[in-house]
Amino acid sequence: MVIIPITEPVLSVDEFDNPKIYKNAEAVMVLLTRLILLNPGTIQSHPDMGVGLVKNYRYSVEGSEFELRGAIIENIQKFLPKFQGASVAVELKDKAYYISITIDDTVFMVFYDTKNNTDVVKTQYTRLNEL
Predict the structure, then answer these.
(1) Is 108 helix (H, G, I), strand (E, B) or coil?
(2) How far apart are CA 79 and CA 11, in angstroms?
(3) Gap between the Cα atoms of 51 and 116, Å rounded
(4) In Å, how far are 33, 92, 93, 127 from 26, measured between CA atoms?
(5) Could you give the CA distance from residue 76 to residue 42 in angstroms, rounded to a whole number?
(6) Is residue 30 within a helix (H) or strand (E), and if so which, with residue range?
(7) Of residues 18, 25, 16, 17, the one with CA closest to residue 8
(8) Strand, helix or coil at 129?
(9) pLDDT tens-digit readout, 52-88
(10) What is the pLDDT of residues 36-60, one digit of tens each?
């Protein structure tokens, strides 16, 4: 049973050289990741779109997880209204952000390590019944 019927084309090709299209939970993960990583002001027609995780939260300080959570919720409500019922949790441990967004029966996770010299952002998703 598909809870989130959605597709998202990306600028790459699959193993048969056809345009790659993510479906369902993978498509939602792509949309959420783009929104979280996008720097505000990048898209001129929507200058307030994006959270800017790497640019705005690289130098993490205690308490910044509340600001980050608010920015994610605000962006989801404004630019992904289909997912307004999403539950967002942000935790800061050892200068690394653990972001989890629960939509329907799926948990989407984003990990961002601010102390690593290279920008390490990892994503994954898991259905609640698989936990």
Answers:
(1) strand
(2) 21
(3) 20
(4) 11, 25, 26, 12
(5) 17
(6) helix 25-37
(7) 25
(8) helix
(9) 998 998 887 778 899 999 999 999 999 999 998 899 9
(10) 999 999 999 999 999 999 899 888 7
Query: Following DSSP, what letter does each residue of 31-90 receive, concatenated?
Result: HHHHHHHSPTTSSTTSTT----HHHHHSS--TTHHHHHHHHHHHHHHHH-GGGTT-EEEE
Give me the amino acid identity at 128: L
- Name which of 70, 67, 75 is nearest 38 in CA terms: 75
- For residue 33 the two structure tokens come to 């990741």
| pTM more than 0.70 | yes
- Cβ atoms within 10 A of the Cβ of 47, count? 10
* Cα distance between residue 17 and residue 25, in whole Å: 23
Residues 6 or more apart in contact with residue 104 via CB below 8 angstroms: 3, 4
**pLDDT at site 115:** 82
